[in-house]
Amino acid sequence: MYKCEVCGRTADKHHIVHRSQGGIDFPLNIKHLCHEHHRGKTGPHKNRTTDIQYKLELQDKLHTLLNKEFYKEEELADSLRINTGMARKLVKELKNHKEGYRSKDIIYRLMGEKEYHEYMLEEFCEFIANF
Ligand SMILES: [Zn+2]
Ligand SMILES: [Zn+2]
User: How far apart are CA 91 and CA 24, in angstroms?
Assistant: First the structure.
């Protein structure tokens, strides 16, 4: 049984990059959250700031983890703790250079073909402040 990463209560699996956004079922994309911190007012499904915050955290982790410029499928599978089949699927549509797949492309793909920035949080805060 998993515990909520925020409060420690019994938790469900949350996909940081939602499945509907192209999120993949791999360990780093999973966050354990109780019902309240998952579906409640401050949770990522109802609160855009929380959602973006979790995505920025994941994106940072991926940049730290995949710190080389290029990766081969096997290496990528090891780094992300996924099987080679999944890694192969992941890079299927990416350009294969002779050194391997570019980590920037892999991260972009893992983030659901989106790049997240800190300012996305601020934009929302300003919106709240003016509300
Ligand atoms: Zn909780
Ligand atoms: Zn969720």
Answer: 12
